[in-house]
Amino acid sequence: MGTVFHLDIVSAEESIYSGPVEFLVAPAQMGEVGVYPRHTPMLTRIKSGMVRIKAQLKEEELVYVSGGMLEVQPDVVTILADTAIRSHDLDEAKAIEAKKVAEEAMKNRASELDYAKAQAELMEAVSQLAAIEKLRKRRH
Amino acid sequence: MSGSREIRNKIRSVKNTQKITRAMEMVAASKMRKAQDRMKKARPYGEKIRNVAAHMSRANTEYRHPFLIERDTVQRTAIIVVTSDKGLCGGLNTNVLRRALSEMKAWQSEGEELEVCCVGNKGLGFMSRMKANVISQVVGLGDTPDMEKLIGAVKVVLDGYTEDRFDRVYIFYNRFINTMKQEPVMEQLLPLSDDKMKADQDADEKASRTGWDYIYEPEAKPVIDDIMIRYVEALVYQAITENMASEQSARMVAMKAASDNAGNVIDELTLVYNKSRQAAITKELSEIVGGAAAV
Predict the structure, then answer these.
(1) Which of B46, B88, B175, B292 has its CA at a distance of 20 to 30 angstroms from the CA of residue A60?
(2) Contacts for B127-133 with beta carbons within 8 Å, 24 or more apart?
């Protein structure tokens, strides 16, 4: 160690990058930050943009992240990339929306009746088969 | 011959059912592989954010997030119930809902108030039939769980917690063990239990030295808030991906059993049908022979 640190870039849906790195530049909220090994612990939000990564004996690499969090430890750096576009207001709007949907659904639940009915019929057929099978086993 | 026609109709209808169940089995098998992949891919994020949260809980922060603080009295509880959107997956949803219901009854008998957040159609239907207090819901997630859809519903719960409307949050879902086995589990989501984060404490001793703190940009509070919200969301997301993998494998197994059962029933009905046909032929023959002998 000393000349490299370990970098992980992960999003909830997949792991984007993982490996030893000499140097990296990330688009932090207050401006770009460059990180070399043995950096002071730091925690910050990052904006959407390119993360520049320089790995040993390799060309510089560019990885796009759509915002998220950056954690720096002396020899481990983690970027938690968001998969959704987020802001405080947007989250708020989604929460209100979710609440409204829940309330409406409590009031009327007729719309999905057709699908539910068809499924119930199939379910019945399947459970009939299971029952017949069970009866048959008992007989033998 | 009327009896044998009825049998023939029955055979046809069972065959049709078998076609459906067999198709569903194959669809579930291919979806299962994808769902398992997705579950595995979601794990690194969960691990990393847990590391960060664990580092943070050990750092010397001037601000302690409410999610980390254990409360003395517990009067109101919120639960998140993860179920599938569609049925026909064996006892998967029933198991997790039964588990949730028994816990809910226990809490209610202690005089606690309950609020429910439903993920998945089946749980929502069940909870509204039980007249539970549903505060938010996510339905129609499809095959790929989308973080976007979760944020709102989870935020309702998290806000409720920070605003003291409830004192703890649990999540119910099916843990995927293997294709044949899924297990309904209950986990405490909030307050974040320490042992969950301590799991990897020994792994990195360097971070556990005391008396240090992060540099926060722009400020400690909003950054820590963001991390904590994402941490809880990641936990919920992971529960959902596990539940989806469980759903597909449970459906595959259930549909395979249904197809096999249908095959057995068809075999048996065919036997009965042939017997009755043979009996009819024999009867006719003996009538003809009997008639010829009489002449």
Answers:
(1) B46
(2) B127/B81, B128/A105, B128/A106, B128/A109, B130/B101, B132/B104
